[in-house]
Amino acid sequence: MAKAKHTKQADGFEVIRKWLGSKDLQPFAFQEEAWQMYAEGLSGIVNAPTGFGKTFSVFLGVVIDHINRHPDYLKKSNNGLQLLWVTPLRALAKDIGRAMEIALEELKIPWKVAVRSGDTPVSERQRQKKSMPEILVITPESIHILIAGKNYRELFKNLTCIAIDEWHELLGSKRGVQVELALSHIKNLRIAKEDTADYAPLRIWGISATIGNLEEAMHVLLGADSSNGVIVRSALEKKIALHTVLPETVERFPWAGHLGIKMIAHVLPIIYNSRSTLFFTNVRSQAEIWYQALLEAAPDLAGIMALHHSAIDAEMRTWVEEQLHLGTLKVVVCTSSLDLGVDFRPVDTVVQVGSPKGIARFLQRAGRSGHEPNAVSNIYFVPTHSLEIVEGAALQKAYEQQLIESRTPVVMAFDVLVQYMVTRAVGEGFDSEQLYCEVITTHCYADLTWEEWTWLLNFIIQGGDTLQSYDEYHKVVKIDDLYRVTSRQVAMRHRLNIGTIVGDNLLRVRYMGGGFVGTIEEYFISKLKPGDTFVLAGRKLELIMVKDMDAIVRKSNAKNAIVPAWLGGRLPLSANLGEVLRHTFQQAALAPESHPLLQFLKPLFDRQAEVSHIPRENELLVELINTRDGYHLFVYPFEGRLVHQSMASLLAYRISRIIPITFSIAMNDYGFELLSDQPIPITEENCKMLFSQENWYVDLQRSVNAAELGRRKFRDISVIAGLIFQGYPGAYKKQRHLQNSTSLIYDVLREHEPNNLLLQQAYNEALVYEVEAERLFRSLQRICDGDILISRPKNLTPFCFPIKVDSLREQLSSEKLEDRVKRMQAQLGK
C-alpha cells in the first residue's frame, strides 16, 4: 500500500480509508475496484502480484459491506458465519487468520476468526458448530466434512461471501472439483433464503496469481453464473531480479545432479549476505541432502537453519514458520511446502536449486522474497549441470514476456462425484433430480448426462452391475424420495476418508522414547532392515524396528545414510518453458554473445556445433551414434520427460514395425534415447513418417500399454470413490494390500464391465496425466511442420551426454557412476 491521500467515500469505504490513513497507507486502485465490485453484489477473481494485498482486496470488501448494512457494526457480535475463506494449505490458514484478526481488532469490529482443517481439535470443531465465528478459514476437504454433518444448512444461513485463496493452485486438481461442488450446493442453499430478513446475496471471489487462462479460471470458479463475473486486474508489476550462480568453468560434457552440491561454496556467500533466505529444492530428498551439506560446510548455521517439507512433523513445520515470521532463522531449506502465499516479510532472498520446471512456479517462488509492495524479489538460480544454465537465460526471457502457463481444469471426475454423492447422503440426504440439477451447474460436470447420473446412483446404492453381490458396496438407500446413508459404520468410514489427495501410505517415524520425527512412505521403509541408517528432518536415524504403522528409530552418528526417495518426485518441464528453451538454444547457435549466460556456455555450444548440430526453433535434432554399448538414437524435442517417455515408446513401436528390434529407453527434460544392439533404421527418407500424427493415438495406446497405465490410475480413483477402504487413522492398510485389492477389482471390471465409468476415467487420466497425450500430439504436429535434421557423430555429444548418464544411473552406485562419468569425460575430451 502507498502513502495516504483522502477522498470522500460511502460509510464503509470511509471507515476503511480512515483506518488505513491512521497507518499512513492508502488502498491500491485494484483493491478499491474489488471493494466496489463487491458492494455492487458481483462475484469474480482478483489478480495481482505477490505482496500487494490481494487478501485485503476481498476480506475488506466483506467488512465494508457489513458496515454499510449495519450502522451498529461496532456493537454487533455473534453475526453467524459471514465469510468462508477456502485455502489449499493448512500452513496458509493460520497466517491468513492472524492478519484478519489484527485488522478487525484495530477496526474495533467484534468478529471472531477461526481455522478449520485436519489439524483442528475435535473440541474446537464442536465449539464452531455451536457458535460459528464470522470468518472461518477452511480447506476444501473440511467444507465437505461440514456438509457430511447433520443440520449443516444452518451454518451457512448468514453467509455473504466465499473466497477461494490461491485458486490457480486448486484449478486443475480434484481439490478444485471439490470446491466447485461445495460452491454449487452452498449457492443453492442461499438462493432458498432470498425472502428472509437481512438477506445479502452470496458472492464468490477467487484470488489468483497470474496464469495463462485467467478468464477460464473465472468461468470454472463461478460455474453457470460466470456470465456475470468480473476480473479485477492489478496494473502493478512485481520486480524480480534473477541471478544465475555460475561455476568457475563450464563442463563440455555435463550430467544431471553433478554440479548442484559442488556449488555450495558459491551459495554460502548468498546466505550470509542476506537477512533471511528460503532455499527451494524440487523434491524432499534433495532438501535433505542440501540441509546436511550446508550444515557440514558451515557448522555455524546450526540453530539458525531449518528444514521444511511435508514429511516433517506438523509441530516442527509450524515452529519453522513462526521463526520465519519473527526473523530468527537465517535460512530454511524447503520444497513446494512453502511455495504458496505465506507472508514471511523477513525473507529477502530465494535460492532455487535446479530447474523450477515451469515459469509460474519460478515466479511463485521468487515472490516469497520481498513480500511487500514495491520490494524487489531476489532469486538465485543454482543449476545442477551446465546445460541447465541455459534455463537461466530462458527464465529471464519468459519473465520479461510474461509467458505463464495455463492450468487445465478437470472435467468429468466421476470418482470425486461418487464421493460427494455419498457425502450428501451421509449428511441430510439428497433428492436425485435436485442434486443432478445442482451438479451440472459446475464446469466439471456441465456435460454429465442423465444416463451417467443414473449409473452413478446405481453405483453408490449397490456397487453397479458387477459388484452388487458384495454388501460393502451397498452404501446408500432410498427413503421417502431421499437417498441416505443409514449405516453408522459406512458414515464413519466415509467421513474419515473424505478428500482427493491420495499418496503412498505413510509410517510415523518415532524415537524409542516416544518423540515424533515425521513421516516416511511405506515403500521406502520396506526396503530397509534393522540397523540401516537414513536421513529425515535433517537428522541421521537408525532403524530399530517397524511396529504397526510406526518406524522406531534412534539417533545415529553413522557417516553414510540413505536419503529417502519419495514417490512422485520428478516434475516435467512445462510446455511454455520448453518453447522458450527452444528459442534460447537457437539464440545460442546464432548469437551466443547476445546473453552473458550463453556467452559463458560458448565452449559447450562450440563443441556441440563441431561434432553435431545445435537445433533451431523449427528443427528437431536426431543423433545416431554407435558406441561399444550399442546403437544409440538421441532425439531433442525439449518437451519434458513425460512427453519424451511417450514419444520414445511411440517411436520404438513404429520402428519395430519396420524390422523386429528391441530398445531400452532413457530420457530427461531435453530429449530421449533409444538404445539397441542392432542398427536403428531411421533415415532422412522415413523420419517424417516415424514422427507422423497419422494413427498416432492408436499407436500410442499400443506402445505405452494403456491398460497397465490405467491400472496405476485406478488405484487412486478407487480410493477417492470409496471402492477401497484405506483403514482407520493409525491403522491404515498396507500398500501392497491396497494395490492387490484394486488390481483385483480392476481386472474384474475390465473383463465383466468394460464400460464402467470409473474404469473409463482411469484410462483417460492415464493418457492425460501420465502420457500427456494432447501435448504429445502438438509436439508431433510441430515436428512435422518443421525440419528433422539427422546427425551422425562419431561419439557422444554434449547434448546427449546427460541422457546417457541418466541411463547408467539405475545400474551403478553413486561412487561408481561418478568414476564412470569421469572416464567417459576424459575419453571424449581427447
Question: Could you explain how this protein is built, in words?
Answer:
- With 830 residues, this protein is of the alpha/beta class.
- It is built from 32 helices and 27 strands.
- The strands form 6 sheets. The chain has a 7-stranded parallel β-sheet, with helices on both faces.
- The longest helix is centred in the N-terminal third of the chain and has 18 residues, at 90-107.
- The termini are far apart.
Give a quick set of tags describing it.
830 residues, alpha/beta, 6-stranded parallel sheet, 32 helices, disordered N terminus
Please provide a brief summary of the model.
With 830 residues, the chain is an alpha/beta fold. It has 32 helices and 27 strands. The protein has a 7-stranded parallel beta sheet with strand order 3-4-2-5-6-1-7, sandwiched between helices.
Task: Give the SSE map.
Layout: H1 11-22, H2 29-39, E1 44-47, H3 54-69, E2 83-86, H4 90-107, E3 113-116, H5 122-130, E4 135-138, H6 140-147, E5 161-164, H7 167-170, H8 174-191, E6 203-208, H9 214-222, E7 230-233, E8 240-244, H10 259-262, H11 264-272, E9 277-280, H12 284-297, E10 305-308, H13 314-326, E11 331-334, E12 349-353, H14 359-366, E13 377-382, H15 389-401, H16 414-426, H17 432-439, H18 450-462, E14 477-479, E15 482-484, H19 488-496, E16 506-511, E17 516-521, H20 522-525, E18 533-536, E19 539-547, E20 550-555, H21 575-590, H22 596-600, H23 602-611, E21 619-627, E22 630-636, H24 641-656, E23 664-667, E24 672-676, H25 687-690, H26 696-704, H27 706-720, E25 727-728, E26 731-732, H28 735-752, H29 757-770, H30 773-785, E27 787-791, H31 801-809, H32 814-829
Parallel strand pairs: 1-6, 1-7, 2-4, 2-5, 3-4, 5-6, 8-13, 9-11, 9-12, 10-11, 12-13, 16-20, 21-27
Antiparallel strand pairs: 14-15, 16-17, 18-19, 19-20, 21-22, 22-24, 23-24, 25-26
